[in-house]
Backbone:
């Protein structure tokens, strides 16, 4: 798993390693010890997934501030994540 720092210090790009064969691929998208080693604090509490069927759909993340701070894990399987 590769972890890249981005312009916002608290935001990191996590790139899972893919193991491919004739059947397809396997990727480990979350591993608590590896995330912790990369400076991504836990615990990991919630995972949500959404599908946007229309091309050009833009989605955003809500930002919480103290005392209700909540980390985010965003994945994109097609399209792009703007930083």
Residues:
């Amino acid at each position: 798993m590769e972890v890249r720092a981005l312009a916002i210090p608290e935001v990191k790009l996590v790139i899972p390693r893919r193991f491919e064969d004739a059947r397809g691929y396997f990727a480990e998208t979350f591993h608590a010890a590896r995330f912790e080693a990369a400076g991504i604090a836990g615990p990991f509490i919630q995972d949500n997934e959404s599908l946007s069927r229309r091309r050009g759909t833009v989605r955003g993340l809500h930002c919480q501030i103290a005392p209700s701070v909540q980390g985010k894990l965003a994945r994109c399987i097609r399209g792009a994540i703007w930083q």
Notes: Residues 58 and 80 are 10 Å apart (CA to CA). The mean pLDDT is 80. Residues 2-37 form one domain.
